[in-house]
Specification:
globular; 311 residues
Length: 311
């Protein structure tokens, strides 16, 4: 923790130096430093678009901290990055064996191992990304109280790490598809849309949960339970068609409001089922994400004004 905080502080200090060094040696550095004024928090004074436009200036800081996050994630483990593959693979084996004993695996015509792993891949990225991002601010409290930088960078580094883990674990999906002779088709292009929506949802939920946990520490304690229930309310281990056939229409429409439902179903249909997405589920997921991400960012910037006081 100490080495990680020191690395973060060094990267931020280096970035600040790049932004504030004068163009001429005759100009004192102190005169070129940006001045930040802190005022009482109020939604009316928020300028989220201006804050968003400022973020590209900190891309090198985001990149540096994200690379550091990926490197230290498994630094002291024997298996290293292989843990990114083992987590969804172990869950796939458990559920495959379970359905082998009880029968009736809902695999939509492909081997259940491939079916389950294709659903677990985006879900594991979402679950690990949200879990890690939730504590990204509280675990770096010393930075929040001593260094000025856009606080959203910290949760975003965990989002990047989760997506890198997903890309690594995707190698096992390719191996499973080759083993079971499951071909790819042109429909696989839809998986790119699913991954893009997943990244946006991770950003929105990660920012929201991270900001909430600064003030309400119960959020971190509740996350494992919430994510476990959320997984079974998402078509990870069963196809979306099973929910459509078993639920009344009002309940099914409510079920679709879970944005991960459309993401997981679209990813799996494109990669292993060679099918176009369920457009209704995909559209509802995209609409929900279009609401979640801006709302989460606005709330995060509002909460950021008092983070240093309560963290």
């Amino acid at each position: 923790m100490g080495n990680s905080a020191a690395h973060y502080a060094a990267a931020i200090a280096e970035h600040e130096t790049k932004l504030t060094l004068p163009s001429s040696p005759t100009v004192p550095r102190s005169e070129t430093r940006p001045v930040v004024y802190f005022t009482p928090p109020a939604f009316g004074r928020l300028r989220p678009l201006a804050e968003l436009a400022r973020l590209p200036r900190f891309f090198d800081l985001l990149w540096t901290l994200s690379v550091h996050r990926v490197k230290v994630r498994y630094k002291q483990s024997r298996l290293g990055i292989l843990w990114a593959v083992l987590q969804p693979l172990a869950m796939m084996l458990v559920f495959t064996l379970m359905f082998s004993f009880i029968g009736g695996a809902p695999s939509a015509g492909v081997p259940y191992a491939v079916f389950a792993y294709a659903g677990l891949l985006p879900w594991t990225a979402f679950s690990s990304g949200v879990s890690s991002a939730s504590g990204s601010l509280t675990s770096h409290a010393s930075l929040l109280t001593k260094v000025a930088f856009p606080r959203e960078i910290l949760p975003l580094t965990y989002v990047v790490a989760a997506l890198v883990d997903m890309a690594t674990a995707g190698v096992a999906l390719v191996a499973l598809m080759l083993w079971y002779a499951v071909p790819l088709s042109a429909a696989a292009i839809w998986s790119a849309a699913a991954v893009a929506l997943l990244a946006l949802l991770l950003i929105g939920v990660g920012l929201l949960i991270a900001a909430l946990q600064v003030r309400y520490r119960d959020v971190g304690l509740a996350m494992p339970v919430v994510l476990q229930v959320w997984m079974f309310a998402t078509p990870v281990l069963y196809p979306l068609a099973a929910a459509r056939h078993s639920l009344p229409l009002p309940a099914y429409l409510l079920y679709l409001l879970n944005p991960m439902a459309g993401i997981v179903e679209t990813f799996r249909r494109g990669i292993v089922l060679q099918q176009a997405p369920d457009l209704q589920a995909l559209a509802v997921s995209a609409a929900a994400i279009a609401v979640i991400v801006p709302a989460a960012y606005v709330y995060f910037k509002f909460a950021e004004l008092t983070m240093a006081d309560v963290v």
